[in-house]
Amino acid sequence: MIANDRPLDCNDPRIPSSPKPGIAITAAGGPLFMSGSGIDVRSAGTIDLWGSTLTGHGIGSVNFSSANARFRTVCSTGGDYAEYLPAEEALEPGDLVELDVDTGMIRRYRGNGPYIGVVSEHPVVIGNNDPAYENDPGYVLVALAGQVNVDEAMVYEEGRVVYTKDKRYRVGYRLENGKVLLK
């Protein structure tokens, strides 16, 4: 958890004070794995992080299979909340997607189904995260909220308001940084 590769100091005034800096992990009946790429909790339990910052560089993760986690501050270079959704075709980051109501799967937005979101490039939070989906081409991360890059050929803009090309759905708002804030 980092902010532009600068870890927050535990004395940072944005982090509320607590008894002692540290990490408490309470697991019941299952293992806790720590590796160079993250922490994986595979048991019921709780992870508390207080007065300190879990810092990571590069690609890493904290995965919870059936544990609860409480953090005072989470910092990331990711910019959206995304969920793994089943896809009926290959999709690229920035693609707008719709739901094919006949198959229950997502596909590139064509205007034939309801607009759902944008294929994510750098999520900060991932929902519906079954480890089997990570390398399965039949699933794709779709941003449902947050800041994303979009395929410019798929959108229409009026001022800073961004719509699907056919103007049926509002996608979000163009920010100063060039990304679109999904709403």
Brief descriptors of the model:
single chain, 183 residues, mainly beta, Virus Head Decoration Protein, Chain: A, 2 domains, ten-stranded mixed sheet, three-stranded mixed sheet
List the helices and strands and how they pair.
Layout: E1 22-28, E2 32-35, E3 38-41, E4 44-50, E5 61-64, E6 67-71, E7 80-86, E8 96-100, E9 105-108, E10 115-119, E11 123-127, E12 139-148, E13 155-158, E14 161-164, E15 170-174, E16 180-182
Parallel strand pairs: 3-5, 4-6, 7-11
Antiparallel strand pairs: 1-4, 2-3, 7-12, 8-9, 8-10, 10-12, 12-16, 13-14, 14-15, 15-16
What is the N-to-C order of secondary-structure elements (H for helix, E for strand)? Answer: EEEEEEEEEEEEEEEE
Mean pLDDT over all positions: 76
Radius of gyration: 19 Å
How many H/I helical runs?
0
CATH topology (fold) name of the largest domain = Virus Head Decoration Protein, Chain: A
What structural category characterises the helix and strand content? mainly beta
Low-confidence stretches: 1-12, 14-24, 49-59
Overall outline? flat
How many independent structural domains?
2
- The proportion of residues forming helix, as a percent range, comes to under 10%
Question: Would you kindly provide a brief summary of this structure?
Answer:
It is built from no helices and 16 strands.
Describe the structure.
With 183 residues, this protein is an all-beta fold. It has two domains: 77 residues, no CATH class; 103 residues, Beta Barrel (Virus Head Decoration Protein, Chain: A), CATH 2.40.300. The chain has no helices and 16 strands. The protein is flat. The protein starts with 21 loop residues before the first strand and ends with a strand. The N terminus is likely disordered.
